[in-house]
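We emphasize that the prediction below concerns an isolated chain of 198 residues; any contacts that depend on oligomerization or on bound cofactors are therefore not represented. The input was used exactly as deposited, without trimming of termini.
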Amino acid sequence: NMITEKLDLFPLRCVLIKDFLSPDEIVQFETAVQLYNVEGPNSNTGMCIKKDYRDNYDKNLYFFYDKVKEQVVENYNLHIEVREAIYNHMNLNEIVPNHLHTTKSHWDIAGLRNICVLTACYYTNSGEGFAKLKINHPQPMGVLIGEDAQFLLEPTPNSLLLFPSWVNHGTTLHGSNITRKCLVLEMVLGKNPGVHKL
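Result of the prediction step, given as a token string:
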């Protein structure tokens, strides 16, 4: 059974869902991602799984996308579509610099329905020294009045984190010889956007 935890991070709505996939779904997920050659040199930069809606391999992850969409409707009252999926690998001494997703160059088509509104991170493994996700305070004045400058989240296997794509985030240094693996989804508004509660 999934366990949903709504995180009170600054003025953001972030949702952490533990035990996201059933044991059978985990096997299905691992089988799907094995179709993509993401091991080897430079694997930390990630492998773009969803190059476009015609990608033949993408159908193997539809069950996963649908499950994420259900959680987005339940927790944000938003209808979304998956714009891109990247299976990120982090190796020893690597770090993901602070960034956000709405200004990425590949959002090259004007219009709200082509701007990333939500990001999902699905963690498949964890361990001692694993890099933590770092979510930075979106309001600099908040730090000046004593609020925490950032929130650190330890990766937990089979957990899904949802957060607004516009928030600045990155990771701490990965200090393990075990490769850290995370599937990142970028989502845009779907045909029925519903009520915006980001």
